[in-house]
Every structure is written in structure tokens, then in C-alpha cells.
Amino acid sequence: VQLQAYGGGLVQAGGSLRLSCAASGGTLGDYSVAWFRQAPGKEREFVADRRWNGATMYTDSVKGRFTISRDNAKNMVFLQMSSLKPEDTAVYYCALGKGKASTRTDQSAYYYWGQGTQVTVSS
Questions:
Q1: Distance from first CA to last CA of the chain, Å, rounded?
Q2: pLDDT value, residue 99
Q3: Residue range 39-56, pLDDT digits in tens
Q4: Rounded CA gap, 59 and 3, in Å?
């Protein structure tokens, strides 16, 4: 499965962005989908996921501001980001996996990764 993430850019604090991730070469509905991010000088971290059964999970810092969604028919994953903060600045990666719910925040649970899209939030 190949993933192509896009939609990043430069936005002012308080603004919004919608990230998209297009999947090809596989059936999106067979996987849980997730977004991770990596800020400069930091390790890549879990942001949100949406499992095959519709259950979602968000890291505390984005709860109430970010929404993950998927369109299995179009093989697309989205991350709607609102009320953006400078600390949201990072490269955002989409990922697919079939791991257990208990490992959903672990990078090792995901088989396929997109190339990343840069999000920069200015203060």
C-alpha cells in the first residue's frame, strides 16, 4: 500500500488546515488509520487514529481541536485541524496498520507510512 499525504502549509495561530492522505494499492477498510507528527528535534508522536470499527483516539494536546476521518470508498484519510497553535508545528505522517487497540499509539503497530507533510503555525 502506498500513502500520499498532502495539505500542509503555513497558517497563523488560531487557523485551520485539513490534511489528506490518499491510499493506493490496497483496501483502506482493512486497516486502522492514524496520524503521527514529528516536530524539529523531537521524536515522532501519535496524534490520532480511527480504527476499522470507527473508534477514535486522540492525544490529549489535540482533543477538541483535531478530527480524524476516513472515506473508505475513496481510500482517503483526513485530519481536520482547528485552533492551531505554534506547538502543532511538525511534519505530519499518515499511517495504516492492523495492530491491537492496546498498541494503537505505537509506531511499530503501523505497516505503511506516507512521506509526511509540513505544517507550520506562526504566532
A1: 37
A2: 83
A3: 999 999 999 999 988 899
A4: 22
